[in-house]
Give the backbone structure.
Amino acid sequence: MSLPVAKPQFELSLTRLIDAPRAKVFRAWTEPELLKQWWGPHGMTTPECEMQLWVGGLFRTLMRAPDGAEYPTQGVYLEIVAPRRIVFTDAFGPGWVPSPKAFMTAVVQLDDEHGKTRYTATAMHWSEADRQAHENMGFHDGWGQSLDRLISLVTEKMPD
């Protein structure tokens, strides 16, 4: 007997077709020097990025706003399936140490569509309040602007 797969209740998602092969998009997600070029909304910089690309490995970034405000993030990878899928969460730190305030788990799905990439980024939250807070922070606009920057990188700036 097969059980139905439940869709997470508290998720936000963004999907777009990118005119670049998924291996290139995957590289932009998994090479720190590339991620630093596009991570964050327009006007933000990411001066720091650290990745340990294995399950349980560290994923850490520091975004900086034009006014100097800094936004650190830290978590671990839960799944890496090159070049199709990356899953990370802030629920744990390295060594599977629980986070004092888990906020979300991110799933980045990269599907091949005739040499282009169907990009789907999903943020799954533990509560409706967290989902709503993320939406109020500008999830669609902020993640959309980051995606614009990612697309610019993989279609215009990154060599094949």
